[in-house]
Structure formats: C-alpha cells, structure tokens
C-alpha cells in the first residue's frame, strides 16, 4: 500500500505554496461569497435534508478490520474516506418532510444493500459504528494504524487513502494538524500521521433552512442539542485492546473508566494543531451568516494548494472551499452549489457516531431536524440555554453518555437537571418541530420513538457494549477478549438488523455475549 506518486507530488507541491497568497485568495472569495449571501443567492424555496454516513469494513468471518478494494468504492453514492478500510455513503438531497425522511431511508438502504452484496463476494462486511476494536489479520493493530514511510521530510501513512490532504496533515509545516500523541483514559495513542483517526466513524445529518440568514439560529440551536443527542447516541466506549497502557485494558476501565464516546477526544487530540486555535472544537454562537463565512476564512490554513477553478458556480470560491475541508467544528456551516440556482447554505451536524442500524441513523436525522426547527423557528426556551452550559453538556455526554449530568430549559421555561424530565421535553420538542415541517403527530412520534426509548430505558449502544464486555469478564474472559467479544456481538447482531431493525430491540448485552 502507501501513497501513490501523484499524491506524493501533491503533498510536496503543497509545501511550496505561498500560504499568505492562498490565505488572501480565500479572504477575497469569502468577501464575494458574503455578497451572494446578502443578495439571497443561497436562499431556497424549500428546506432540504441529507446524510453523510461513514462505515468501516471487516472480514466477514473473523470480524477484524479489512482494507476495501477500490473497485467497491465505484458503487453509486460511495467514496473513499481517510482509512483504506473506510467508505462514506452520501445521500441524495431530499425535501424536509415525512416523504423526504422516507426517501432518505429508502435511498441510503438501497445504496448500502448494493455495496454489501458486492462486498460479500470479497468476504467483506461494512459496519456502522463509532470505533472499531479488532485489527487486521495480517499484522498488529498499532502497526496498521501508524505505519508510514518517510521520504524527503514527508510522512506518508501506509493505510491512509491516497489524497493529498490526508497525507498533508502530517507533512505540511504550516499548522501541521497531526500531533505526537493523545492522552485518553488508560491509553496513550502516539503517531506522526493521520492513521489513528481512521479508528472513528460517524454520521453527519445535514439541514438546509430556506433562508441563509436563518443559518446562525440553526447553528446555535444545534449547539444546544448536541449534548443530549450524543448522550443517547454514544457508541464508542472502547479502543483496540493493544492501544491501552501495558497492552491491555483493565476491567474498571472497560466498565466505566473510559469515555462513552472515545471518538471525540481521539479526533480532537490528534487533529488539532498544537500551535494555533483548535480546529476540531465546539464552536461559539454565530451573530449572522456573514460571521459564518468569516470564521472559515480566519481558520488556520492546513495543506494549502495551487487550485484552478472549474465550471461549477462554487468554483468561484475554490480556495474558501478548500479551507472549509479542514474546518472541523462539531457543528459547521456549509456553502456550496454546482450552479447558482442550486446554491446551498446548510448546517452539518457532526457530533454523532455511526449507529447500530440505518433506521436508527434516520431517527437521528429526524431528531436533528425537529429540534433545530423547534429551537430556531419556534419559541422553545432551550434556545436561550447559555453557550457555556451547552458546551458543558456536550463534553459531559462525551465522558458519561446517558449517565451524564446535563442541564436543559424546558418548554415551560424551567431549568432542569432531572434526566427523565430533560429527555421527555427534548423529544417533545423534536416532535413539535417535525409537526411544524408537516408531519402528522403520529408520524413525528414514530420517527423519534427509537431515541426516546433509549432515554426511557437508559439503554444506549455504548452501554450495550459495556454490558457485553461485563458478561464476558464475568464468565472468565480477559479484558482483551472481552473487548473482542463485544465487537463480535455487535457485528453479528447488526448483520441481521442493519436495514430493518432498531437498536432498542437488540437482545440484552448479556444475552448477546453468550452467543458471541
């Protein structure tokens, strides 16, 4: 494997780009973009939704992570992601309505079914998850994640996809992203390249309001709901066992000492340049749509490039778009469009890990749509939750998942830390927002039900994985084998429920462990 010659040449060329000139081009394009925003170019006749869904591949028999043949990524709707074991599904854009949500589920299901069918011929299965924990059959996990070649000062990861920006993160001196190591509970992950970031996979719902001027209200609403939604969606409590200190985790670490959503601190720790403001972060509120553009313009440059625009409308902002590709805030605005008529200003919601089933992922999209609509367009008091509290909620959910201490403002204006009351009000607000989008009360409640049941039962993917590991430990497995049992149980259970099931209907973790 390893980077191919065009990629190596591209990384080398990036090191010679005049960063100041690149930054100035991006600033000029940003000013022009703001004029388009003010003139209404990015306004639309209807709101729309979409979904990006990252996956990783495993060996269908043994369950260890496996590289994806490039031919599989020619399937409609898929493209490469950072790791050679990754694929990313991009949905079609749909109307923000019940029919749109149904079409989103149908479209993603059709694309992934087709990919899984072809992958099965290669002995591969794609998994929707937050992190993978069982490494490849042909080598150690640590080596797979960190192995690189070093050529003329370039760091070229062996198992990272051939893209200039992926390898440039570790090789271009200006605000080099990849740091030396990240400290996690019970583990230190050290690297000189982006490989370990490919442990993580996520889903990213997109919501486009009709008017670009409404983007800040939707952005700020997304910040208020990020913590509670992550609390019920958390799905990455473990790392591969050999990455832990002393080469293995402890029982205490597995059953509660690690983050419920390890994906977040891992990504932040590895991808934030040490000498400048964080790029992976919980962003501040926005004053207006122009401020969203200004933030991307002001963001530190990573892997600058000599770029020539093409025929697309947004190629007039090609340097700005290049910068946006490394603007990794947990909620971020997106400005693009192949034509002026198709110009889109939308919110990309990035806190959520991959979910156990596709219907669960669509439930997350529905919850994001409903909550952002109710907080941004309605009169729900949670829109006034202080930013500092919203940020504290997010990182509390990262640490403790459904057990996190969260603060919320209810529809009646009461500040509450009561978990049952918080989630009851949260999902009532999501239902109200979906009803405002034209869904019937029954349709809205049905869309939200899978997540509401998680909150009511306290049963989340992260907690399920811990339960499987606990059962394995209690029956005599080592902590290392318990992590592997959890992964086997997860992949096996997902295989029969991915397209039509819901996580809340999965067997209890202890039962799943006995069958692993």
TrEMBL record:
InterPro entries: GCL_type2/YbdK_subfam, GCS2, Gln_synth/guanido_kin_cat_dom
Alphabetized Pfam families for the sequence: GCS2 (PF04107)
Record Gene3D superfamilies: 3.30.590.20
Stated name of the protein: Glutamate--cysteine ligase
Lineage of the organism: Archaea, Methanobacteriati, Methanobacteriota, Stenosarchaea group, Halobacteria
């Amino acid at each position: 494997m390893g980077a191919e010659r065009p990629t190596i040449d591209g990384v080398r060329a990036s090191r010679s780009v005049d960063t100041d000139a690149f930054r100035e081009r991006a600033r000029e394009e940003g000013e022009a973009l703001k004029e388009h925003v003010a003139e209404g170019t990015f306004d639309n006749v209807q709101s729309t939704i979409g979904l990006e869904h990252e996956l990783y591949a495993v060996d269908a028999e043994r369950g260890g992570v496996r590289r994806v043949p490039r031919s599989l990524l020619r399937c409609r709707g898929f493209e490469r992601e950072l790791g050679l074991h990754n694929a990313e599904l991009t949905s079609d854009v749909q109307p923000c309505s019940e029919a749109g949500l149904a079409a989103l589920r149908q479209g993603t299901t059709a694309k992934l079914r087709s990919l899984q069918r072809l992958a099965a011929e290669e002995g591969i299965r794609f998994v929707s998850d937050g992190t993978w924990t069982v490494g490849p059959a042909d080598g150690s996990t640590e080596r797979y994640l960190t192995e690189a070649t070093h050529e003329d000062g370039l760091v070229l990861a062996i198992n990272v996809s051939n893209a200039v920006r992926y390898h440039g993160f570790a090789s271009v001196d200006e605000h080099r992203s990849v740091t030396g190591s990240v400290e996690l509970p019970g583990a230190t992950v050290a690297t000189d390249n982006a490989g370990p970031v490919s442990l993580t996979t996520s889903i990213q719902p997109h919501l486009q309001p009709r008017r670009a001027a409404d983007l800040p209200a939707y952005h700020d609403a997304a910040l208020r709901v990020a913590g509670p939604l992550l609390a019920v969606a958390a799905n990455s409590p473990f790392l591969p066992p050999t990455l832990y200190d002393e080469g293995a985790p402890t029982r205490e670490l597995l059953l509660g000492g690690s983050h419920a959503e390890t994906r977040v601190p891992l990504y932040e720790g590895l991808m934030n340049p040490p000498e400048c403001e964080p790029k992976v972060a919980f962003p501040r509120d926005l004053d207006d749509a122009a401020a969203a553009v200004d933030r991307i313009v002001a963001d530190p440059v990573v892997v600058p490039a000599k770029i020539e625009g093409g025929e697309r409308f947004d190629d007039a902002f090609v340097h700005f778009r290049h910068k946006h590709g490394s603007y990794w805030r947990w909620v971020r605005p997106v400005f693009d469009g192949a034509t002026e008529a198709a110009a889109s200003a939308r919110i990309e919601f990035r806190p959520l890990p991959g979910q156990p089933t596709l219907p669960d992922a669509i439930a997350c999209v529905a919850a994001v749509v409903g909550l952002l609509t109710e907080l941004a367009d309605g009169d729900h008091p949670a829109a006034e939750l202080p930013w500092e509290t919203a940020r504290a909620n997010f990182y509390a959910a990262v640490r403790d998942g459904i057990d996190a201490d969260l603060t919320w403002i209810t529809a009646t204006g009461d500040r509450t830390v009561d978990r049952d009351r918080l989630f009851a009000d949260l999902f009532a607000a999501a239902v109200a927002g979906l009803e405002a989008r034209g869904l019937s009360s029954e349709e809205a409640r049905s869309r939200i039900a899978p997540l509401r049941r998680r909150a009511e039962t306290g049963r989340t993917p992260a907690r399920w994985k811990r339960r499987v590991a606990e059962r394995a430990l209690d029956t005599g497995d080592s902590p290392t084998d318990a992590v592997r049992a959890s992964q086997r149980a997860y992949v096996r259970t997902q295989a029969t429920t991915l397209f039509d099931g819901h996580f809340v209907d999965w067997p209890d973790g202890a039962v799943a462990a006995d069958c692993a």
